[in-house]
Each structure stands twice: as structure tokens, then as C-alpha cells.
Amino acid sequence: SPPGPRGLPFLGSALDLPTKFVFRKFDEWSKLYDGWFTLSAAGQKFLVITRADVAVDILDKMSVQTSDRPALPMVRYMLRRMSFPFDNYNDRWRRCRRLAHENFNIQALDNYRTLYEHATAKLLRRLPDVDPMQLREELTQFSGALAYEALYGRDAGGVNQRRNIHRVWKLLEVLGDAASPATFLINLMPSLDILPESLSPWKQFGTRYFNENDKFFMEMAQPGLTGQSDSGFVASCARMRDRTDGISDAEIAWTSFSLYGAGVETTPYTLHWFVMAMVLFPEVYQRAQGEVSTVAGNRPPTFEHRSKLPYLVAVMKETLRWRPVLPAGLPHTASEDFLYKQFRIRKGTYVFANQWSMCRDPAVYPDFELFKPERFLADPPPPDPPVFGFGRRICPGRNFAQEVLFLAMANLLWAFHFEKATEPDGKVIIPSPDSIDGNILLRPQPFPFVITPRQEIPN
Ligand code: HEM
Q: Using a 6 Å cutoff on CB, does residue 259 contact ligand 1?
């Protein structure tokens, strides 16, 4: 049989699998096996990949067999298969994925640059008044507003935008809870699915959730769909209708929500980790800040400066590697049986890429505990950190995310000094990068630090 922990009869490794931060347990097991292992938990089979070259073999080269997603019953009731990151590998997924790709590939990103320059400038103006313990919320607002305008259009501002962002935030939270096996019995006992809706409160809940949100997403998308707004993702998709077989307005509206949901937490948490790294590693911070100041002078840095900021680009890569915000990626599923190293992997097996372990592979990233951006300036440099997933499911927002991160990092360094905070008795407070919350996301805990403007911030 393939390598991996065997656990108990029938239960398998179910009791060893934590409900939170499963990446840590996978990482522990990674030390015992050679890049991958399998296990089963209460009948569900898992294949866990812990080295990037194995991920390439299984998720890139065999992507036809390994690009499905687990079908959690509760998620199906709530989303009715309209949200492509959760959907099976099928025609609708392909249509929606194409919308995402065409609008967020490198060339298309030029359309969004003014937008993130504005959002970043606004962030700089707000930050001096923000309590550092509220930084995470502030960064989440920043990326929420940015994503909202990128998706629904520049003129989607105002009170509605704030209210809608808040509402999307809430409904994502409900979705996250429902996707967890512990919340809804049905996720653990899919056989209950045969009960009629009148006897299944969870199906009624799902129907309500779907109907309310379907209406809400259509309302948000309306200006773009009808041509009232001509900027942003929805408007651009509406213009692509003729070229995209069978795409419906509802699919455009749900794809927009899906992109919002997938992007809105990952980006600000990465920025929060960046601020922690700057506070923890003053020599990196000074070098990066020196580079930005020399290149940008007394005007805020822009994309024009990117090619002259190699160290900062390395800092961004190192942040993504040091604290990958999706440490166990998102699970894929095998859509048919396949062979790997002569072992048969069964249809329905969950396939995890434990990116945390890959980012801490000592053969690729020596001294992986340390924050060492200069590793990415070596000749030849190591591969970019594998934090955006693999194969046909690779993150379609990866270039967008990195542009937003680059610009925000450059501007934060240009505008502010970051330092460790001190207790009233003068003791220096050292934030802990191991202090996390979240569930599948690696979310930093708020931490105290001192932020002081070092530039006149333009209005
Ligand atoms: C630091 C930022 C980000 C990180 C680290 C990240 C990482 C990931 C990862 C690991 C996956 C799973 C890939 C797989 O299944 O193999 C993923 C999927 C996805 N990401 Fe991102 N992401 C980020 C930002 C964004 C942004 C800004 C957007 C939207 C504009 C986005 C949209 C998506 C979507 C739609 C999927 C699902 C793709 C599918 O199932 O076909 N992500 N991302």
C-alpha cells in the first residue's frame, strides 16, 4: 500500500486530524514520508503532497484526473453549484474560469492600475489615525473596496458599497462555517441527503441562503450587466457574452462574488504578515525602505518603479513564502482512479497540496524559518514560492494579488516608519509570527507596533 499513517481500523486517522490548521499535522507527517503520503479518515481517502515537484507530477501533469473539488453537501445546498471555486470540473466551471482568466491575466491588469493607485493612496491617508491593533480590519477594508471596484466598476462607490462589502463579508463567514463538517451534520453524513426538504432544516437553510444571495449578487451586478457602468469585471464580462458560449447573467454575477470571496482575505492577511516581518526584521526593513526611497524620492512609488525595486519584489516573495496565507491550499479531488508510483489512487480521494511544507523545504529554501528576501536574488534564484495552487485550479487572481501587494508594500515603506512597541515599563514587545487564528487561512493575530509618518502624504 502507498506510504502514510494507517491509524485505527475503520476510523483511520480521523482522530489525528485536527479541525483547524490541518497544515501543521500534514507538516509533521511530511517528515516521515518522501514528498507525499495517503491516509484515510472515517472512510474518506486523502492524498497529501508536501513537496513541489510531486505537486507538479500529480496536479499539473495529471490535471485531467486531479482538478475536481470535494462536494460538501451543505455547500451544494447553499451555492447550487453557481460558485466556480467550489464547483466540479465541468462546463460551467470552464466558462466562469475563462471570464476570470480573460479579465485578470497580466495584460488585462493594466485596466485596474489606476484603481489600485487610488486605493493605496487612500490607505496611506487613513493609516496615521488607525490603532495598530485594528490594522487587519483596515487592510481588509482596503482590499474589500479595491476588489469591489475592480469587479463592479469605478462608480460603484458610496454608502451602498460599504454596506454591500459588509454584507458579503457576513455571508462568507456563514459559508465558511457551513463548509466545516462540525457545523452541519449533513457534511458528515451525506446519506441524510435522501430526506425531503420539508424534513431537512439544513436544506431549507441552504435554499434561503441561495435565494437571498442570488438576488443580492444580481442587484450588485445590474449596472455592469445593463451597460449603466462600463468599467470593472462585470461590465467587461457583459461585453464578452457573445464570445462566451452559453454564459448567463447569473453566472457572471456569481463569478463576480466568487472572485470577491477568494481574494478579499488572502491579500490583506499577506500585507499584515508583511508589516509584522518589517517590525521583526529591522535590517530587511531598512534595506527595503532605502531602496524605495532612493528610487521614488519624494513622490509615492508607482508601477513605473517596479523594475528598479528588485529587493522589494524579493521581500514580497519572501512574505508569501514565510507565511503562505493558504497553507494547505484548497483541496482538489480525483475525478477518476489514477496511478502514482505504481499505487492506485481512487476516484473521490481528496488531494491536498500542503504549501506550508513546500515553502519550508530545506533543499529549496535553506534557513526557512528566517526572513531572507535575498534568497530570491541569488543566481540562479529558487523557484517562486508555491502558494497559489496547481494545475487547472491555480489561483486566477495571482497576478492581480501580486500587483496589489507590490504597490501597497512599496507605499507603506515609502510613507511610514514601523517599529516595535514598548510596554509602559520600557520592555520591548516582540510580536509572534506563530500566533495565528483563522481556520483554513493563516490569519495573523493583531499585534501592537508603532507607526509614524516619514513623508508628507499627498491628498
Ligand atoms: C495573496 C493572495 C492570494 C493567494 C496566496 C491565493 C492562493 C490561492 C490558492 C492556493 C488557491 C487554490 C488553488 C488550487 O486549488 O490549487 C486559490 C484559488 C483561487 N483564487 Fe486565489 N489567492 C490569492 C488572491 C486571490 C485574488 C486577489 C483573487 C481574485 C481576484 C483570487 C481568486 C481565486 C479563485 C477564484 C480561486 C479558485 C480557482 C478555481 O477553483 O478554479 N485569489 N488561490
A: yes
Residues constituting the chain: 459
Burial class (CB in 10 A: 0-12, 13-18, 19+), 207: middle
- Helix, strand or coil, per DSSP, at residue 193: helix
> CA-to-CA distance for 442 and 269, rounded, in angstroms?
8
Mark out the alpha helices in 65-134 (DSSP H runs): 73-79, 91-104, 113-126
Q: Which pLDDT tens digit goes with each residue over 273-327?
A: 999 999 999 999 999 999 999 999 999 999 999 999 999 999 999 999 999 999 9
Does 270 contact ligand 1 (Cβ within 6 A)? yes
3-state secondary structure at position 90: coil
- 343-345 and 36-41 as β-strands: parallel, antiparallel, unpaired? unpaired
Give dist(CA 156, CA 7) in Å, integer. Answer: 53
Q: What is the ipTM of this complex?
A: 0.99
CA distances from residue 349 to 45, 337, 365, 393, 419 in whole angstroms, order as listed: 5, 9, 30, 16, 47
Quick one: DSSP state of residue 335? S
| DSSP secondary structure code for residue 244 in this structure | S
Report helix, strand or coil for 455: coil
- Measure the CA–CA gap between 247 and 238, rounded to whole angstroms: 9
Angle between helices 398-415 and 310-322 (to 10 degrees): 110
Is 395 known as a binding-site position?
yes
| Residue pair 433/439 in contact by the 8 Å Cβ criterion | no
Q: How far is CA 380 from CA 51, 355, 364, 377, 384, in A?
A: 20, 22, 12, 8, 12
Residue 457 Cα to ligand 1 middle (Å): 32
Q: Cα–Cα distance between 135 and 141 in angstroms, integer?
A: 10
- Alpha-carbon distance of 253 to 235, in angstroms, equals 11
pTM for the model stands at 0.95
Question: Ligand 1 pocket: which of 101, 149, 255, 266 to mutate (most atoms <8 Å of CB)?
Answer: 266
More confident residue, 114 or 387: 387
Q: For ligand 1, atom 18, which residue shows the shortest CA distance?
A: 395
* Residue to substitute in 93, 394, 398 for testing ligand 1 pocket (most ligand atoms within 8 angstroms of CB): 398
Q: Report which residue type is found at 253.
A: A
CA angle, residues 306, 137, 386, in degrees to nearest 5: 50
pLDDT of residue 182: 67
